[in-house]
Amino acid sequence: MSDIKPIDANLLETLRQIPSCSIANAIETFSVQPRNVGFMGPEIKSVFPNMGHMIGYAVTAKIAADAPPSTHMNVSRTEWVDEIMKVPGPRVLVLEDIDYPNPIGSFWGEVQANLHRALGAVGTVTNGGVRDLDEMQEVGFFAFASCVLVSHAYVHITDVGVPVKIGGLEVNSGDIIQGDQHGVIKVPRDIAAEIPDAVKRVENNEQEMIGYANSPEFTVEGLKEMLAQRY
Predict the structure, then answer these.
(1) What is the dihedral of CA 76, 81, 87, 90, to 10 degrees?
(2) pLDDT in tens, 191-230
(3) N or C: which end of the chain has fewer CB within 10 A?
(4) 42 DSSP 8-state letter
């Protein structure tokens, strides 16, 4: 088994319910990383934006589909299952499609969504594509992808448990991945427990500004004074 340790389950559920944008705002207040990193770019979109919020521990792999697998670039599905079970649940399957930016075959569809859901996965993040959208959504399997595809082509797993890069974000197995209609973000473990309170602080500050903008006392000079204090 892996030495990846889960964080407190109640904390994980709290983080799941927070919009990704609010998590991003909160992370910025700790100065643990530059503000232009830690999240995936706009090419990775929520396939089911009305499904809500996803969170889990990443299980990483690389896939390809444009050509049949060669002996040295083909990981068996049983090895993939073993890799999945090394990571605590809930699990998010993070698959880098090495055919990107021209993915042609989908690993994900009705069958794989059901099988991986039975393995404790809540969804997938990939720079490849997904298909069988109605069936995936019906079982509540989250999907964040670069596109929708019609075929699985020659899709196969080429590597598991390795660092992957999707939407500009490097992800390792065990990383905490959160996603919603806005996109996908990685939650730094070192500050995870402090994020809920940081979210409240940021939102209180925002509500002060919003409240002032909608108050009878609003003036341009007052706004300029408020902005000077905060930015």
Answers:
(1) 130
(2) 999 999 999 999 999 999 999 999 999 999 999 999 998 8
(3) C
(4) T
